[in-house]
Amino acid sequence: MSAQPFLIFPWQRPFLPDLMDAVERLAGGQPGNALIVVPHQRPWRYIVRIFAERGYSGLLPKTVPFGDLVALWRAPEAGSARMVANPLDQGALLHQCVRGLAREDANLEARFARMDMARFLPWGLRLAAVLEELFIQGREPADLAHLEGEVSSPAAALLGALGRISRAWGAALEERGWTTPGLEQFLAARDAARIPERLHPGEDRPVFIAGFSVLSGTEETLLRALWRAGAHVCLHTDPALADAGTAHWACAEQAQWLRNWGARAEPAVLLTEAEAQHKPQRQFFAGYDLHSQLEALAGDLARGDGASTAVVLTDSALLLPVLHHLPEKDVNVSMGYPLARSPLFRLVDDLFRLQEGRAEDGRYHWRALLHVLRHPYLNMLEIPGMDGEPLALRDGLRRMEALIREGSRYVDLGVCLAECRANVSQPLGDLLAECLETTIGGLARADTTAALAGWLGGIQAFLLAHGGDIWRRFPLDAEALFRLMRHVAPQLARNALAGEVFPAPLLFAIARQLLERERIPFEADPLVGVQVLGMLETRLLHFDRVFVVDATDDVLPGNPAQDPLLPDSLRAVLGLPDARRRERVAAHTLHRLCASARETHFYWQEGVSHSALFDGKKLRSRFVEGFLWEEEQAQKHLLVPGTAPLRTAVCEVRQTPREPVALTRTPRLHAAMTAFLQGPISASRLDTYLHCPLRFVWENLCRLKPRREVNEGDDPAAVGICLHAALRALYEPWLGKDVRRGDITAARAQACFEAAFADADLRGLLPADACLMLEAAVPVRLGEFLKHQPEETHIVALEKRIDAELSLAGRAYDFTGIIDRLDRRDGLLHVLDYKTGGIKAHDYSLWSDTAFFAEAAAVCALADEADSGAPSDDAAVERLDPAFVALRERLPSVQLPAYVAMLEAHEPGKVGDAALVELRFKGEERPLFDGLLDDELYAAREDCKLALALLLRHMERAPRFEGRVEDHCSWCPFASLCGS
């Protein structure tokens, strides 16, 4: 038979029904005699359905996917079955090839002769992928010299010997009896002249080539041989190709195909006028993220009329989010879900990350360990208890999590496990120990791919043994386990490098790469309802309604992969498809799908360029831009976002006036406050109330505990304790003595700090950068502190605990506190309180404001006259809150006034002043009274008591405890309770 003209099936009509008509016609009414070569097996189900709907009961045409065609072509020459080399086998063999060639090549010798397997393997895997592509394209490459400026030096050395490596690679595969899918295609194409009898076209056995749009090198060689022998090439494309007209730009590859083969084209089906003028109704939706797209998709799908529907996903990772938004009716999923998106992969990857962050002493980072312990797979496992009742592993894991959160950044797993086992039953403790040994201990010891495969097998056995029947309820997860053990683990266990010791990062990278290649398949039934497909799975198929989700430019057509060995700019030099060719393939696939559809919908997110799946902002696809331009040409005006057909996501935003968060004083809160005020009162807790009454109530009355969490950032409290210890050690030799400025040297201060720093173990608490900054800054700050000390002072006490009963506006209260340093200056006592944080200055004019303190005394007197039971809305309450707010604005802290009042109770008339020492900057003293003397000083000391009395009366009588939104909310442990 001679070469047949190409049959052009117009893409305005469904392809497969027209193709079956042509098969029946050219097979003389016996479609069972025909053979159809297709890219993949997917069309077979639709062919069966077409003939069933026609009532046909005879033999059906045989469909042969291209992979099976290659196997048939190779069958007579293959002899005994060859082992398919997996990626690790290929990397090992290429290592030998490159080292052999390095003896004759100076560039290879300089880069790879002494490179061990661990360092070579990443290059070897990339090189194997390039050689596989060359096989598929039917190319025998030459050496590419002088690429030092284009790629890195190792890549230039490999590309400079690429032709020799390719020949050595082929010979090495032949010698070992190994093969690869690409090599099988290459060898079949080399023997293209010998067409197998089962594939040879004949008068009684017509052969059809359908569904191909752009051919690889081996596809072109084999299919061209079939065509020359009489096979019919069937193209579903622009009908203009059949009459030498100007075809659509997306059909440029098909036009080039016709020219390359010197083939004629003729229409297989003639279009009616209505069909020739057919244009799908297009709708566009621009969302701000994936969820906004899916919400619009669900609404559009619900308005369907039962027509055939395809939801086309540009990224397989979209599958599960999309499934949650589909209508509750028959759904056919015809694409695989990436194993890398499964919970199983997350468990394995979390365990890898845990080991990658392990400290040199074997301890594990707390957060990475919590990611493992909180994984749902582990928390679903159970074991029978001593009484027969099931014990949940999650109870032990939660207990261990609580211990970890109370510890340091790095966790000694053995110590933590022992402490946890002491508080749980023996069966649960045994299960917890088995879990940690199986998941963490086994991986820590794995140093070869074979050992890694054994570790994966141990995880599977552990999950199955203690999972009960949960895997029957979660088929997707059960299939992921199956793929792990039937596909990934065997590749790790049985390869040429199975016994090679690798560093942990490379070992984990190998496993991740193998896991990321796996797909979890779905049953592709039924063929009715909504069909969920990837873009490539739509080839040959027709749908009335097409919905393309996430049509952004980074996936449609997609950006070129970053390959350090062979950048996209060099691919065409080797005859490999580059980004431009991949774009043309994607363009034809999309336009072919849309041309016969009744309506098409495109969804995308746009905004700031980003590539994250859920929250990233991307750019709409260039193909969508083309469709929008066509719509604008048809409507003679620019499309306005927000109006049909270019819809946008609209969020209704309403102003919500913020109401202050507050707790009303209830009898129980009042009782709790009364009990608090009857005990010793610390000035720091009074400061908490002064800053934010609501926080005080939650912390001291409701007794809520902040969430315990390991501190990974700076720890101001620990730093403050360290500096206080350093200053105590600095002044201890001078206790009870006079000290003059200059008596204490900066070197002595630095030595005291270094000792306190070591005792506090801040290196284990703070990040490395914080430790470096602290060690560099503190000696400087202490030096400034010493410069600002008085000319002479007498050290009376250090960290002196003081307790006193104070009579405040006629009521007695017990106070307690610790004075950091007590000096005697000019015959009077001076209180010093060290502050490592910022200090908010108070209003010095407060102590001369007699009107303010007169109002405070009046308010306190009114409060005392009121009933001492439940609060009431009397005159005292109405005047109490304004006076309290005024006090807070003018006196941000009552700590120093409280110390002055307590000290005055023990040493009447002997207190001179008090000051906050700001260690954060220059170490200057911020005095409370700022030089008041005699009567003014006496009055100020009395006013300190009035300020405390006003604060305490507010605590006793205020009807509401209001929150105060300020900067302190950013580090308040209860900020989430009030939404600040």
Task: Give a description of the structure.
There is one protein chain. By secondary structure, the protein is α/β, with parallel strands linked by helices. It contains 40 helices and 30 strands. The protein has a 7-stranded parallel β-sheet with strand order 11-18-10-19-20-9-21, with helices on both faces.
- The number of strands is 30
The strands making up the biggest β-sheet line up spatially as 11-18-10-19-20-9-21
Radius of gyration: 40 Å
Beta-strand portion reads: 5-15%
Mean pLDDT: 88
**Which segments are poorly predicted (pLDDT under 50) over 5 or more consecutive residues?**
608-616, 869-873
- Sheet with the most strands, sense and barrel status: 7 strands, parallel
* Broad structural category: alpha/beta
> How many H/I helices?
40
Distance between the termini: 82 Å
